[in-house]
Write a structure and sequence with these properties.
The chain is α+β, with helices and mostly antiparallel strands. The chain is built from ten helices and nine strands.
Length: 347
Amino acid sequence: MAGDRDVILFHYKGSPYARRIVWYLQLRGIPYKQCIQPPYLPRHDLSALNISYRRIPILSIGRDIYCDTRSILSALETLYPWPCNPTTQFKPLPSTPEAKALTSLLSKWIISGEIFWRLASLLPSSAPLLKDPKFQNDRAEFTGRSWSAENVDKMRPEALVVVRDAFDFLENTVFADGRDWVLGSGDGAHGVLGTVGSPTMADLEAVWAFVWIKGIPGAYEAGVIDRENYPRVWEWMGRWENLVAIADGYTGRVERLSGEVAKEAVLGGAFGGKELEVDGKDPLGLKKGVEVEVWPVESGFNHRDRGRLVGLSKEEMVIEKGLEGKKIRLHFPRIGFRVKEVNGARL
């Protein structure tokens, strides 16, 4: 898939959600380009694409633009069939119901549950970025709470309690039998969910946020969350770090696009061949073609995208917006987002 359907990732280096997508692209061997954004607003490159959504990353494939990592991964899994990059151990998720269920639950646990934002609450107030008033103000607008040093320190103890509980769960249930990966072990043992010996999407869905915080000095507190208390989880994170380091080495330099060039590539691209429909039985009762607003519920909720509803299913909603005489389509997941008909009473 190339040319009019180039993959472009809009992100910044320190974003944990962006790293989740970078790892996936590298492990799968999917070629992509990148357009680097600042860590806080304004992001003029995205404004130039008529995108109000402010969370990072965003991924474009032609004129289809995917917002939120859940939509991004779903699209990539659909558009780029396996096999994966032969230079890594990363394998497709087994088709067993148990493997699919566990992977989905881990994703929801990290993103829709409180694990990620509790991990983010472990960021030490001494971190350079957290001392930047621009960053503090930006994240206050983004989350609806103060990011002052005083408030960051105040939230830390409770966050440690929740994250410690998460480590207990991983150490004493998922990895209690000594397996290497979430779904199995390299020696052929413990493979009760349909695969052994290799990391899969189940690992990616669980590990990314924990490894992010592990890389920030002072985030995990010694004596509370460390290798001594959670050796199996620590070894799992280490195996993952080695895996993605190998994939990164094989990927090499990723082409970096300016905002202007990225915009030209999007406008010069094509839509995917998938026919979009609006589910007539959806509880919201929205009709295809109506003008709607879409926005995230938990963070970034002050930034709404308005467009014509062209797709609505159990998994995603898609709106179409104008851009310099052409159309782009924004894809959002159903969970964690709200859609409302403009000048209508439906929520």
